[in-house]
Amino acid sequence: MLSELFGEFLYPTAPSGSSASGFPSEVEGEQRLARTEHFLDQYEDFKAGVRMPPRLAEQFARVRDELGDFPGRAVDTARLRAMLANPTRTSYPGVLNDCYFEPSTALCLSRRPSAEPDAAPVMNHCQPAKCPNSCVLPQHRPAIDNVISDTRKLLAIRPLTSFQKAAVHQQIEQLQHMRDQTEKTAQ
Questions:
Q1: Among 157, 149, 139, which residue's Cα sits nearest to residue 176?
Q2: Can you give the pTM of this predicted structure?
Q3: Of 32, 41, 43, 49, which one's alpha carbon is 20 to 30 angstroms from that of 138?
Q4: Rounded (10°) CA dihedral 173, 176, 177, 180
Q5: Strand pairing of 91-92 and 98-100?
Q6: How far out from the chain centre does Cα 76 lie?
Q7: Distances, alpha carbon 170 to alpha carbons 131, 141, 146, 154, 173, in Å
Q8: Average pLDDT score over residue span 10-37
Q9: What SS3 class is residue 54?
Q10: CB under 8 Å to 66, separation ≥6 — which residues?
Q11: Cα-Cα-Cα-Cα dihedral of 43, 96, 93, 136, to 10°?
Q12: Is residue 187 pLDDT above 80, yes or no?
């Protein structure tokens, strides 16, 4: 019926979820590039002494030792990018923390009966204060401060049961511990 009414004015469209323009692959490429740049920044932070989770620290130490990337020595940036390309695939920058995802140790997957080897983190189940894949850095401090402030406001404006208050206080303690980690790494 529509084609009879509008005929030449109807434009063919690609099936839902696909794009003939290649836009989704362009977005994915840009995201991959941003993750790589973020990961290179993390590597520079590691060299400057910022605390990293053990798995990431091991990876960065291996790269540093193999490249001989020590103060006063020039390093081939293309080789550095190539060496860091594989771990970049499991890097998920976040607001309160960065996740260097390893399915076998990820707490966010604990609610799933079995995680596939190519699983991705379940961000709404993230436990940044507890997960070994979590890395809290100085750039996360402002967001952590905001969450602590908002949580304290919740205690002041809302009548809560004793169990709810205990849970909120526990959350504040965990967030303060995360914030303390950022202060230690910033020194």
A1: 149
A2: 0.65
A3: 32
A4: -160
A5: antiparallel
A6: 26
A7: 16, 19, 16, 14, 5
A8: 70
A9: helix
A10: 83
A11: 20
A12: no
